[in-house]
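Hey there, shall we discuss this one?
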Amino acid sequence: MCGIAGFFGRAPRPAKALDLALERLARRGPDASHRAAWDAHGHPLHGHPLHSQPAQAGVQEALLHARLAIIDPRPEADQPMSSDDGQVWICYNGEVYGWADDAAELSAAGARFRTRSDTEFILRAYERWGLEETLRRLRGMYAFALLDRRRGEVHLARDPMGKKPLIYAVRGGELTFASTVRALLPLLGERPGFDPDALDAYLAHRTIPAPATVFQGVQRLPAGHALSFSLHTRQTRLFAHWQPAPDPGADWRERLDEAVRLRCVADRPVGLFLSGGIDSTLVAARLHQMGQPLLAFTAAFPGSSMDESAEAARTAAALGLRHRAVPIPERIRDDFARIVADLDEPFADPSAFPLWYLAREATREVKVVLAGDGGDELLAGYKRYRQHLRSAWRGSLRWPQRGWTAHPDPQGWAKLRQELALDWESAYSLRFSGFSPAQRAWFQPTRAAGLPATRWRLPEGGGVSPLHRLLVIDMANYLPEYILRKGDLTTMAHGLELRAPLLDVPLYRAILALPDADRFTRPAKTLFAPLLPPDLAQRLFGAPKRGFNPPLRQWLREDLAERLDGLDRRLETVTDGVLDARAVAAFLALYHGGREALAEGVLQLVILEESLRQLRECS
């Protein structure tokens, strides 16, 4: 796991720009920091570890890397890494699993490995097989850049599930990329303006889904996609390198155990995030079966109905795992700005805050954690699936409507009319959203007439049934751009690698091949029950699903209360008038008047103002 960045420009970048980009990646990769740089003619300017020497003047092309060393922590495995002839370079963030057989094939064909790192494996694989075949063989999570001087090309790629982030910009014939928006900005030269459509996407979804970012002209590479950039023509080609396909011949149980076992491979200590739920308990149970007594970490909310630490402790004891309950602080005033910064762009999931604190404590003892992310998306575990399927008969039927009737808090018939004004598929985005279309129209009166219902990507195909279609939409949007982005940013902020065995691609393909009667059950996920000890299964499947939510209303009444004063005017200023101050003030007045259900919306506005203010100050 690491942080990466780079640029291939027509004009040189100052040394301080490279230093600043690497500085902003340092928490993602605290173990080593390096650069490789070239002049306008592609001649190398020999890079050095950060702070050992100033960056060379006249840098026109560069690869930057900050390393979290998990496999083969020796300096020989540091990056950027080059081929033997110096013509191919890689800058890589992620972890690839189960590549020993492919490496043996490469060795038999003459490849000479200098390290035990998956970085070198990807490099050697590309030299032998090219980009598309290499991507087909990779199993794991990754975001990387490959520079091929022989072909005059730069390739960017992101893993199929979207576990690792990759931001890029193509402007004026220049390519710039980074793991985060904040690391990208110094390399752009001129800071772009905020994108009004991206601000609306944030209001709609509490995050900004790919391919957009908060800045105009800066994009996020979608999950399972690659981009090739020609150093000669300065043209780009964006393409999907992976499409999900069932694997009818695979045993999903074998794939699951293989996925868990592979994710325990590390040269640094490994732990587990354990909640009181089914998915992380399943991972813990398989670890127990394999004789892997990892240390388990659980977020504790003492005195709250959301506290699962007691259940998690019982699970850990039953499975022989060491367990650590991590109390989540009740006060966040001192950490709020830093957490918002670590989320990179505006991102308003309240559970990101306890996850950030959990990662901070876990990294004191381990450098890798396994988690149960993905089970709900694999087996339709969210209640919203059942809720939305009740109206699947509507299909493309919709209530005729012109535009949205602006309202700060639509209820009853007004709320239902918003859903009925959309076709059934588009209306699904309202099941898990930030502000409704009517609220977004309220906040943005000058743009209300032209606001789309959703800014999610709605992929073509993939729906043999309404439920399958909802899962395809979530796999393209909610999972990579919400769940996995939150996990990556909150853990990597502390130099902690998060691995999700339930999202292993071979396992996913085996699950896709299952009959619906096995995959979609009531209660959900009973497919996993036979792999759990009977007493654990009985307790888990008899308990209601609980969230991972902090004491939000207490935070707004105490730690964040001072931020509500003048929030309306500050939001109008920082968004260049996209959000209307009077509309924001009216919404806040409803909340202060007793509409406690608006608390998450209030937090969403507070985070937006803080995040945009910070980003305005970035260069």
About this structure: The longest strand covers residues 2-13.
